[in-house]
Amino acid sequence: MPAGKGRGEPNAGRTCVRKTMAMLCRLREVPRHLLVCEKSNFGHEKSRHRHLVETHYHNYRVSFLIPECGILSKELKDLVMDSGPYYLVKDLPLHELIAHEFISTFVKKGACYALTYNTNIDEDNTVALLPNGKLILSLDKDTYEETGLQGRPSQYSGRKTMKFSAEGSTMMSYFSNYRIQERQPKIALSTVTDLPCPVLRSGELRGEPEAACSAQELFEWLGAVFSNAELNNEPDNFISTYCCPQPSTVVAKAYLCTITGFILPEKIHLLLEQLCRYFDEPKLAPWVTLSVQGFADSPVSWRENEHGFRKGGEHLYNFVVFSNRDYWLQLAVGANDDCPP
Length: 341
Known about the structure:
The protein is an alpha+beta fold and 341 residues long. Helix content is 19%, strand content 30%.
């Protein structure tokens, strides 16, 4: 009897079906995201706002939104224009980051931050310098390895293109023997007209039916506004069917500012303070927001909390500042992180 076709070999059709089903199951997996919301007051002695801003080290984008505002105040505009510079040093030997002269010149004097440039944390070796002088190494694998400045010299034998941000910096002269560039953050200023805005009450973090929207609803709405999505839920809009949560009100003008670069936590704290002072004089706006996004490929989020990319890489926070100095704070991380602090 002639041998049957394919005898002794795996059933190719059945194997293909199993692989397809496994792939579909993976595609259906929704990445885990964590969002923590809390409320406090800037005058409260236990308020965490300053600490959480100062310990979110590697900031890529800062945005603030002011409803019922058509022109930015001089104080806010001056802070926005003074949000840089930062520096790019190409092919820098990593041992330079643990040199005594570098530590004395930058690290011991306070705010100095560094991060590898144009690397993918899930594919490449990533290096981050924290303002406390600790150097974080993230190797190209699923788990992290961290080391301080006391690590073995061999750990710092490679070269990386690094971006730096530091207060009162003399980076250009210090790294003059390397290819160094000074860069300015990109600043986008715009006025949004006829913007539907959620109605909020500072004491109602979870919202109140037919009276106020929740913190989570506001968070989603901000994402749509920052993405320039339409908010009218038109049936023929094939890009977005999102609409503003209810209850809402339409504001004639809202001022939106976005700063993109490598922004110091100290600069962000000054912006937050100035937004609080915005309500020193009576305003039509009941609240303003300040949103900060970290670099997706930073090996840390807050403090020394390990951060990964996996399916998103987000780590961000948002303040909602109310006219009575109450605030909401929202902290979010992606699929590979522990709960925000």
